[in-house]
Design brief:
The chain is of the alpha+beta class. It has 2 domains: 117 residues, 3-Layer(aba) Sandwich (Rossmann fold); 204 residues, no CATH class. Helices cover 25% and strands 29% of the residues. It has 8 helices and 20 strands. An 8-stranded antiparallel sheet has the order 14-13-10-6-5-18-19-20, with helices on one face. A 7-stranded antiparallel sheet has the order 7-9-15-16-17-11-12. A hairpin with a 2-residue loop joins strand 18 and strand 19. Helix 1 packs across helix 2. The longest helix has 16 residues. It is globular.
Length: 334
Amino acid sequence: MSLYRLEALRSIRKILSLCELQPGDILAIYTDTGKSPALVEGFFGAALALELEPLMLTIPAPHRMLQEPSPPALLAMKGAKMVADLSSEQWLYTNGLNEILDSGGRVLQVLSTEHTLVKMTPTEALVQRAQRVAKMLTKAKEIRITSDNGTDVVANVEGRNGWGQDGIARVPGEWDSTPSSIFACAPIEGSVEGTLVVEPGDFVWTTPKEILVSEQMTIKLKKGRAAEIQGRADARMTGSWLASFGDPNSYVVAHTGFGGDPRASIDQAQEVESIEGCINFALGANIFRGLGGKNKAKSHLDIMLMKQSMFLDDECVVKDGKIVHPELAIGPIQ
């Protein structure tokens, strides 16, 4: 085994330890033929080292995003203490995931590479920051996003839960994705209005190939939907990707929030949404218990805005891509 794989194993063991699993707990490892075997072996090995009972579930690589797990796999996952989701395609916004959470199971998604796992291993400081942001988002009635280049978007979030994603899953019914530091809230359906200006250097997470934006794109938002996407090549690619699903719900605003990990980089797609101060804005599916959204769709599109500002009830929390609220300050991440 290479030294780097041993370092990854150490990070995986720390992550599972932070999830507070106990010896004898069943860890279902849900994976497919499209995932790195080394990463799968790392989770299996770490589970053994912690005296857990790993259960391996391997399926053919999914053909599409948001694919529901098969009934036998779902049954096995519902019987585990926690699921390590090592699928190569996300299935966050599915009925199957909600069934697992409703039964008291926990799911920890792992979309990242071994490199990112080692670089951004979760810490208690980031867990606490996520908890504070979640409370702030839950308390807020309105979110506003602005930028010097013309973004001005308003969303009603009154009564919606804030979500603090911190890379660990500790309690029954909890979902998270590791390693990550993402904060989000699902606006009330039909409430989002305004103009979102996506700038060069921003990021659009289409699959299988993401878009690092090189020219300005403008998205007109009306009654909670992306009503128009204006621009040149990047805008056309984004519009074509959304249209390819043939689903009007793909254009519904799913969530917005911001990232909180100073170690995250735009060089890795799985890290971008966690970049500290990066504002996320998503379209499509959001039927996830943690968000309380109601939109079922065939797709989920994340747009990451690097230098914009976010206000919660007129209180600035992110200014030009930097977290500025004093309650969210943290020390250096080791």
